[in-house]
Amino acid sequence: MRGAAMSLTAAASGLVVFLLSVSVVPGQNDWGVACTSTEICAVKGSTVEINCTYTYPSTWDDGENTVEKTFWFTKQKGGERVDLTTVSEYAGRVEDLCENNTCTLRIRNLTESDSAEYWFRIITTRDTYWGPPVTLSVTDLQVEMSRSGSSALLQCLSSCPPGHTSYIWFKNRQEVKEDTSSYADFSYDSADSYSCALKGYEDFPSPSVYRPKPPSAEIEEGSSVTLTCSNDENPTANYTWYKEDGSSYLPPLNEKPRLIFSSIQSSDSGQYYCTAENLLGSTRSESIFIDVKYGPKLPSVSVSPSAEIKEGSSVTLTCSSDANPAANYIWYKENQTVFQGAEGSYHFTSISSEDRGIYYCKSENQYGGIKSSSLSIDVQYAPKPPSVSVSPSAEIEEGSSVTLTCSSDANPAANYTWYKKNVSSYLPPPFSDKPRLVLSSIQSSDSGQYYCRAENLVGSRTTDPIFIDVKSNYTWYKEDEYSPKASGQIFTITGFRADHSGKYSCEAQNKIGRRNSTLHQIVVKGSWKLLPLVTIPVVLLAVISLSVFLWIRKKRASRDSSELEQSPGNREEPLPDQGQPEQQDDLQYASVHFSNNRAEPLYSNMRAGQHLGHTEQKEATEYAAVNFKSRAPRTRPEDPAELYSVITKIH
């Protein structure tokens, strides 16, 4: 079997990696675990990741060979290798991630007990294989210090092999130097402290070294504290207590051997000393530092920027609290933890609408914890893609009521505007502040594509058009043309021309049946405005002439009849068979009859379009239906569904 090659990468939290061997890539049909390092040195508390790639033959021992399981182990139990993820010492700290023949072992919060040899094992359907061990060493960093006059020689101590990393040096917690050597030389100052770290893992520095500090006592706030000053003197001395504050004159706190704090507060922290004085002289004690520990005070919370927050902007929530020792902070969103750390700032690089809500923070240390007041984060955002609904959703019939509703998620709430595609006019909803467009009695002319626009101060979105197809109960046809000319009760012809002449019919239909009406429309030369001016007087003159003619004829017949009755020789004899009606084909003179008593008459309307800018003139002429009556019996009954038409000309 071929040698192994394993690649290791360090996690950002603080892994230190040193490469001690050369990679050897195995053949695709060989067993192998690829390793580029056999030793790893990592800092205590950091995270280490070991990445390995394995190969195996697709066939083995004359059979198909597939992987059943891969795992890491460090020891055996009862002769069996134990999967590291099942070992209690690693519970919650170890992950084994595998994808495409590459496996990563990740160990968090390293301890010195994690130092061991780690093996990677492959189990297939035909055999097992494991690669060479990887040795992990977990170490602490320590600073060793020696003085030579005014200089201090420092060394950063670790168990890691020298020459494979750089060292970062800190003075008073500030980075001051980087070197590949573990040694550093500084000018000594008794007020300074020094520490070191490995490059790339500055979050895991060594403990600081510094000169001894005055005696101190850690005291919890609210407790009772007594400071006692004593000295071997004769005669008896007088004692005075002082608190240092940096000024040249310090007022005495107490002129007794004891300084008592019955309930010490955080403001009492500081350095204290006492003096003893008698007739022979005086002496001063060393200072003692009183460090009052206390839990966090009520945190204050703020948001930046403090103005209106728009989606996509950068936002920082800040929580701060006075505490000793310094507090750790936890940010919550509606009781769910979203951030935890020593810094109280929670940062949104690009805040989204999902981030809006109620936030609060909690500051805590070993002496207690306290929650802040709530902070409401209102994220303003443009309308999301609107949705459109149509009610009723079934087939839309002419004359029915139809409601189009537009809705969108937006903050602040969106205003809605409805439009009809390819129509320049604005179609307002019945209520300007509501997202509904109501067509109370929809007509076929309302068919078309509709869309709505949702808009607020942040932005706007427009819906895709939705097609409204109104099924008409009326259809217009022209003689000798198969396709319908129009639908709806009203057929409007614009730009009226001679080729519009012809015979038109209007078909009405419902669920029971359908019926046609017919009207003849004739176009004459000249302006349509002259046609009603000529036609109407001619018709009226004809009616008046006919009426005068009939009246004169009736008067003449009445006078002749009177004369005949007065003449004895001309008296009419009764007919022998007056009970039978006279059978004759004499036609009764026509009478003009305007039919208004037909059951459910159907009217057809034709309108000639008008030019914009002219005063609207509308004249409606109802053409009379002329009924001819004969004394002879009718050969067929009159059709009760006979249709009439109305021609309306718009000039």
Provide the fold topology:
Layout: E1 6-10, E2 32-34, E3 39-43, E4 48-55, E5 59-60, E6 63-64, E7 67-73, E8 76-77, E9 80-81, E10 94-99, E11 102-107, E12 116-124, E13 128-130, E14 134-139, E15 142-148, E16 151-157, E17 167-171, E18 174-179, E19 183-187, E20 193-198, E21 209-210, E22 216-220, E23 225-228, E24 238-243, E25 258-261, E26 270-278, E27 281-284, E28 288-293, E29 300-304, E30 309-310, E31 315-320, E32 328-333, E33 336-341, E34 345-348, E35 357-365, E36 368-371, E37 375-377, E38 379-380, E39 387-391, E40 396-397, E41 402-407, E42 415-420, E43 436-439, E44 448-455, E45 460-462, E46 466-468, E47 470-471, E48 474-478, E49 486-487, E50 490-493, E51 502-509, E52 514-521, H1 530-566, E53 591-593, E54 605-608, E55 618-621, E56 625-627, E57 646-650
Parallel strand pairs: 3-14, 22-28, 30-38, 40-47, 50-54, 54-57
Antiparallel strand pairs: 1-4, 2-4, 4-11, 5-6, 7-12, 8-9, 10-11, 12-13, 12-14, 15-16, 16-19, 17-18, 17-20, 20-21, 23-25, 24-26, 26-27, 26-28, 29-31, 31-34, 32-33, 32-35, 35-36, 35-37, 39-41, 41-43, 42-44, 44-45, 44-46, 48-49, 48-51, 51-52, 53-56, 55-57
Notes on the protein architecture:
The radius of gyration is 53 Å and the shape is elongated. With about 650 residues, the chain is mostly beta strands. The strands form 17 sheets. Strands 1, 2, 4, 10 and 11 form a five-stranded antiparallel β-sheet that branches. Strands 3, 7, 12, 13 and 14 form a five-stranded mixed β-sheet that branches. It is about 5% helix and about 40% strand. The longest helix has about 35 residues, at about 530-565. It folds into six domains: about 5-140, Immunoglobulin-like (Sandwich); about 140-210, Immunoglobulins (Immunoglobulin-like); about 215-295, Immunoglobulins (Immunoglobulin-like, Sandwich), CATH 2.60.40.10; about 300-380, Immunoglobulins (Immunoglobulin-like); about 385-470, Immunoglobulins (Immunoglobulin-like, Sandwich); about 475-540 and about 590-650, no CATH class. The two termini are about 100 Å apart. A hairpin with a 2-residue loop joins strand 15 and strand 16 (about 150-155).
